[in-house]
Amino acid sequence: MIHGCKLTLSLGEQSVHIENDAALQALLAQDTEGRTFELAQLLKQLYLNHKGEQLRIPLRSLEVEIWGHMYWDLQTRRLCKVFSAGIFRKLFAFLLRPTAWIDCGARGQDSNRRLWDFLAERPFLAKLLNPGRLINKQQNNIHK
User: Which domain of life does this protein belong to (predicted)?
Assistant: First the structure.
């Protein structure tokens, strides 16, 4: 539990897995940068506590990967609403399937680790993936 949000997590071999659900969105809807940092710290600490070794993912890279997966999910869902014809539904279902869980692994475990490391070293690019405004926009649309 973090900031009153009950997240579903699992740990693998040099990897952490976060369910990309309403609880995660609620957590990151406010103070997205600060809370993502807290979540990344928590994940690394949980890994150390349960596995007895450090998770070999740089903290900032872990944050950026969480943002990247959420950004893809939220943008794809926005497109689903615009292009709702049958042919597009199957495409969007295919594109959303991998976003149900955010799988973060160390090099050798995660084929995208180099991408997340690259973006983490370039904050001006990483900030483009910040999902905070998309989460808030989605929540505002739900309440209208």
Answer: Bacteria
